[in-house]
From TrEMBL:
Entry superkingdom: Eukaryota
Species annotation: Penicillium arizonense
Annotated Basic and acidic residues bias: 36-61
Signal peptide stretch: none
Family matches, as Pfam families: Inhibitor_I78
InterPro entries linked to this entry: Prot_inh_I78
Record region (Disordered): 29-61
Protein name: Proteinase inhibitor I78
């Protein structure tokens, strides 16, 4: 049985959907085996690189895409 935590669910869908689409890929102009097209991301998103400053406002519908130094996605969160 999955863990259900009130107030954590997003109206944008399940995090695992985006994890499956983005994990390990770089963001670019087109989608293929190693990249994902930026134009296919939800309107409310931000890409966070190591050391980037970010606002601390909580927006449950915003997709946060965490990339490593090489630009590959290593985590996806909402908030």
């Amino acid at each position: 049985m999955p863990l259900v935590v009130p107030g954590i669910n997003s109206t944008m869908g399940d995090k695992s959907e985006w994890v499956n689409k983005l994990m390990g890929k770089k963001l670019g102009d087109s989608s293929n085996e190693t990249s994902f097209a930026k134009k296919d991301l939800p309107e409310s998103h931000r890409v966070l690189k190591p050391g980037d400053m970010k606002t601390m406002d909580h927006n449950p519908d915003r997709l946060n895409i965490h990339v490593n130094e090489e630009g590959a996605v290593h985590d996806v969160t909402y908030g």
